[in-house]
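Take a record.
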Amino acid sequence: MKIDSKKMAKIIIPLIIALISMLVMARFASSPEFHEKTIQSLDEKKITVMELTATSTAVSAAITLIPGDVGNPIAEKLADLSSYFLLVLCALYLEKYLLTITGWITFMILIPAACVLFSVNVVCGKEILKRIATKMVVFGAAIVLVVPASVKVADMIEATYDASIENTIESAKQTAEEIEGNAEDEGVISGIISKIKDGVKNVTTKIETVLSNFVEALAVMIVTSCVIPIVVILFFIWLIKMMLGMDLNVQKRISQTR
């Protein structure tokens, strides 16, 4: 009777955990409220990227007002940056959606399936089912943690460059306004050519600085929004392999001692 009761407990408890996971944890882990801080951080990054995109486009359009072809290469470079900022924006949206999707997949599918396999293993005595269930639980935990972990690491890096990115946006706006002002002066006071040329030289120098600042901001955003999530995913894959490899080695030693 003791053996039977223990066996029944080993069968029933995983099934109860599976039900709790599906009925309670899945809804909880997939709700935006549960990931409120992470979503807020991603939204702030999204706003920053959209501001950088809009500002680079505005500066690129303003540069075309400069007399001659002096600023055209820089304008083209700034226009090209917009496509890269769009890539970063897509990565941020993907991370935001994965937050809730991975939680739902883990607690609605992976953990319940793993619990069923644990129960079936008690009945059938198939050790392979226990190994598969363990892998599913570890994999589920990894995909739930990967996005919050990558966002946290990205926040730590971006904290160093927040002021620099804000200065980039402000200086770019000022440069665009200055270019437009010079263009208006050219239309109204067409006789003062030398003054306009001096202004163009000063603005061109500022434009080159703005371009370098935009490139630096883009590099930071690509690293924090695209590279770091990939690195975190690779780290979790390595961690899973290491944990499962240790588990398999321990099981082999136990079987050998028997």
The radius of gyration is 28 Å. The helical segments are 2-29, 36-63, 72-124, 127-188, 193-257. The CA atoms of residues 57 and 79 lie 6 Å apart. Residues 187-198 have pLDDT under 50 and may be disordered.
